[in-house]
Amino acid sequence: xxxxxxxxxxxxxxxxxxxxxxxxxxxxxxxxxxxxxxxxxxxxxxxxxxxxxxxxxxxxxxxxxxxxxxxxxxxxxxxxxxxxxxxxxxxxxxxxxxxxxxxxxxxxxxxxxxxxxxxxxxxxxxxxxxxxxxxxxxxxxx
Length: 142
Fold this sequence. Notes:
The chain has a domain at 22-114. It has four helices and five strands. It has helices at 4-8, 50-63, 82-94, 120-132; strands at 24-26, 30-34, 69-72, 77-80, 109-115. A five-stranded mixed sheet has the order 1-2-5-3-4. The longest helix is centred in the middle third of the chain and has 14 residues, at 50-63. It is globular, with a radius of gyration of 15 Å. Mean pLDDT is 78; it is low at 1-21.
């Protein structure tokens, strides 16, 4: 399996104008889209227990939505970031009107980086790389 950089190399960045008028483009993260518009991927390789989702929610609440969800543009299907979506949904259930980042245009939205994949195998490779590569590195203390 190739690493994350190899998986996404040569992928066209298809951030563009939304046809539904409900997305807001941000060059830093991609687009803010309604969380309800995204489709979870049934092949997601990582489980998200309740305590994991709660931890992600605490991080989003404290630091904002620092990392976007990655989704397959033509399917609106999440490839990486299922835990972030679950955490956002949890926070919106607690307070539907809250904003999760300083640049968020409206409540109920999540940041998404859209990519297009040639096939399910390519999307799976990105999902696995996104979940596995960070765990392969060593931590250093300052």
